[in-house]
From TrEMBL, chain A:
The chain crosses the membrane at residues 12-33, 353-386, 392-414, 435-455. This is Cellulose synthase/poly-beta-1,6-N-acetylglucosamine synthase-like glycosyltransferase. Belongs to the glycosyltransferase 2 family. One of its GO terms (molecular function) is glycosyltransferase activity. Keywords: Glycosyltransferase, Membrane, Transferase, Transmembrane, Transmembrane helix. InterPro entries: Glyco_trans_2-like, Nucleotide-diphossugar_trans. It comes from Flavobacterium cutihirudinis. The lineage of its organism: Bacteria, Pseudomonadati, Bacteroidota, Flavobacteriia, Flavobacteriales. Residues 66-196 form the Glycosyltransferase 2-like domain. The keyword Membrane applies. SUPFAM superfamilies: Nucleotide-diphospho-sugar transferases. PANTHER family: POLY-BETA-1,6-N-ACETYL-D-GLUCOSAMINE SYNTHASE (PTHR43630:SF1).
UniProtKB/TrEMBL annotation, chain B:
The keyword Transmembrane applies. It comes from Flavobacterium cutihirudinis. Gene3D superfamilies: Leucine-rich Repeat Variant. It comes from the Bacteria. This is HEAT repeat protein. The chain crosses the membrane at residues 13-38. Keywords: Membrane, Transmembrane, Transmembrane helix.
Amino acid sequence: MTFFTYEITEFVDLYIVLILAYAILIMSSYLILAHLSTKELRNYLKRNSFIDYEVLLSSEFAPKLSLIAPAYNEGFTIEENVKSLLSLNYNNYQVIVVNDGSKDNSMEILAKTYDLVLTDLIIDAKIETKEIKGVYKSRNAAYKKLIVVDKENGGKADALNVGLNIAEHPYVVCIDVDCILDKDSLLKLAKPFLESHEKRIIATGGVVRIANQCVIKNGRLIEVNVPNVMLSRIQVLEYLRAFLLGRMAWGRLDGLLLISGAFGAFDKEIAILSGGYSTKTVGEDMELIVRMRRYMLERKLSYTVSYIPDPLCWTEAPEDFKIFKKQRSRWMRGTIETLSIHRKMFLNPKYKLLGMLSVPYWTLFEFLAPAIEFIGLVITVLFIIFGLINWHFFFLLALFVYTFAILFSVIALFSEEKTYHKYPKQTDFFKLLMAAFIEPLYFHPLAVYAALVGYKEKIMGTKGWGEMTRKGFTKK
Amino acid sequence: MEKLWNLYKSDDWVHPFLIVSIYIFIAASFILYLLIIASRNKKIRQTKLKIEYDVLIDTLMSSVIFEDSSFTIVSENQKFKKLFENTYFREVLTESIINLHKNYEGVYAQKIEQFYKDSGLINDSFKKLRSLKWEVKCKAISELAEFKITEAFTDIISLSNARNKTLKVTAISAAIKLAGAESIKYLTSYTDSIDDWTQLNIIGAFKKHDIGDTKGVEFLLESENTTVVALGLKLIKELKLTQKVPFVEQLANKTPNLMLQNEAQSVLQTLTV
């Protein structure tokens, strides 16, 4: 019995050390990334204040872009969204809307609004896709930038691949058609492609922010507000942390593994040579970047991925748990699939920083974190049941994690305040501050649960996105 | 040290560590909260001040531009005299007169330039030019170039070799504004590679400042530096300098560099068709 008690005590001690070590490791990594991000952000803003984007606007040497917008059942908003895409501040670009076999009247609306006519465009299908029913152009010269492709349903990745096949220009910008883009977004996204002679810029990513409750007029964001619904309000904080304190640092380290599918630009040649978007994963955005990087590294080609911290793309966040769960479980499936496809890179020095740091970081803190938290929870419950819990230590540890979570959110708010200051209203700031206190108790358990559902779906072999219902933006 | 090691070995460190960390997190959060509040208040104060200053500056500058008031007359006003000692006021004033200068031409623009010199704001700009911070230097360059202070050309052109790319681009654009084609001869001897973004800015500066005299652009085509040659070709193409066609033809026939050859052919096609 004494031996048994000794064994249990040893196990409890080991558990405490491991859980504490994991917490300290994750917290330190967050703080290091936040420090790097802040430094980089400050430099970027300084540099940016002297940049005259007009030179890009007026020059024929500006990179030529093809904007690809896949659309599935977007009938309610497609007319306005496409109009806003056609009126961006940029000259050398075309808009390719890919109707991915919508079941609603998206195609009819597009045909009527933009006076579309079927063309006999010959497509050089470098990437295999589902059948294309027709390629349309407008009879109206005002819409000469627009190409609409009607195709059989094949998912977002397949629609983006059709766009890659059709794109005439060397750079493609992949966006979600329902996102609100800043008028200068293409100018900012295109600039990095001109900036390096030594390294080839294979992709540029932009920041995505939450647009719930914001006021939109003619497809443009005119007033930024903090959402009233707590679930989406906390996502504002979450996006601030992820984009301002996380990805900026990975950008600086040149270890970015993800460019959001909602808004990113790619070197078309490399994207196609790497095989285009994978239709086998729901995390096609992350998977493409990893594959493009892998393609360059395996051929020892000098390259980099650039990152723009300006809030250029605004999207709608889920407001109810059902949709949120679908989104997050899909994100987790995407992460698992990408890490699994590219498992060869894990701690492989051949892949340099990517193999030695980015992939292990994602594995440990993005893929495994929910599982570790869940196991921790189960063990804690068992400790309570068997009377092994040291309540004093338990509360201290919980408070340690809780206060850090608040601190990290406050750092994100501070960073936002000192940089973009998009929430100038006092009430909005206090709403976000309050959300920081509520998040660890309300949002975080939901996010972990959704991620666990993602694990389950992956094990059960669930495929596809599932229906993502959106409420639409507040319009003026 | 030994004390710390013993503490670690005895496992007694966990609780104090957690307690100290919690205190640190709370204190850091509170400090950051105070900093956010302070920053927001500062922004509000500065916005208010700026509105106040803008009204005063509007009155001041309209009397300078339209009523021929010189700085000597203006400086007799005690209120303005006091405000001129305020750094933030001088910053707002510089910004305002730059904007005014961009919108006016001829005599009015000259009056603003004179005011910039008489008021001593020009000295502020020269002082900024000597700063160790590149962003302050950039600001100074923009100010001096806007008011066409040619005395600053030598300092500015020397900064076109700076390691910092933003400073380099700002300096080259300003040099083009100040000396037009004269600055080309500096580009000819450039050894660093000039990336596409810098090239676009140089072309933009030529277009923006309407530099009609493009004498010497052809010398760029003779450079050993391929990026300088590429810039020359782009300049000829974008500014449609048909008189430079013979030099482009010569380059197309002579250069062993395939990329430059193609670019030269493309320029010839554009300019001769």
